[in-house]
Q: What sequence folds into this?
């Protein structure tokens, strides 16, 4: 089978699983609570240019930091892309914004106003959109496709973990448990790494050493 076909299948499989995990029960209403955290999450997932005024006034006291703005996104300034493989550098700001969103879930939980599944699903969906948008800026088709593969894999892993945790406020877990929870997502990571490594060998011969595959 041609390499482009394998890539297309990988993208399609990850996208299909992601859509399934993000979707709620058929016909189910996504009820949104009337709380500061709910308003903040609605604001930051509805517009990329949400201002700092959308963050609850006591967020910094509760969570220990003030959100900042990077590339027009409200972010956790010390956030990062937590992944067993190196993700494209273009995803970094989107990951930091996603970290802030998860901290809003934790903040709400600590305030005794746990949010429903809609909140975590909205944050995960926004991360997916932003990663794919970042890939679109790549000029070459091959690297853009590889970026899309990694975006789909990252979204699948995040969405599967959210589903496994019941879409409640995120809780810390060992990376081993996170990977096992990602079942298909982990398999797709392995497949994408192998595919990209093979493409690199075909184009430039054997590659010495180890390191980031798609960053």
A:
């Amino acid at each position: 089978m041609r390499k482009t076909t394998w890539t297309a299948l990988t993208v399609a499989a990850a996208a299909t699983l992601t859509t399934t995990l993000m979707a709620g029960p058929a016909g189910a209403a996504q009820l949104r609570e009337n709380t500061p955290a709910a308003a903040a999450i609605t604001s930051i997932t509805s517009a990329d240019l949400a201002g700092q005024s959308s963050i609850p006034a006591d967020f910094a006291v509760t969570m220990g930091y003030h959100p900042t703005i990077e590339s027009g996104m409200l972010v956790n300034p010390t956030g990062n892309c937590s992944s067993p493989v190196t993700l494209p550098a273009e995803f970094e700001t989107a990951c930091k914004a996603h970290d802030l969103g998860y901290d809003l879930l934790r903040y709400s939980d600590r305030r005794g106003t746990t949010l429903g599944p809609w909140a975590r699903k909205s944050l995960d969906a926004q991360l997916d959109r932003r990663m794919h948008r970042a890939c679109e800026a790549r000029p070459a088709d091959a690297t853009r496709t590889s970026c899309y593969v990694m975006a789909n894999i990252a979204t699948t892993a995040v969405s599967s973990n959210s589903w496994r945790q019941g879409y409640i406020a995120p809780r810390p877990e060992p990376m081993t448990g996170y990977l096992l929870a990602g079942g298909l997502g982990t398999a797709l990571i392995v497949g994408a790494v192998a595919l990209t490594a093979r493409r690199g060998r075909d184009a430039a011969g054997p590659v010495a050493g180890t390191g980031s595959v798609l960053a």
The first strand starts at residue 68 and ends at 70. The longest helix spans residues 141-164. The mean pLDDT is 75. Residues 40 and 53 are 9 Å apart (CA to CA).
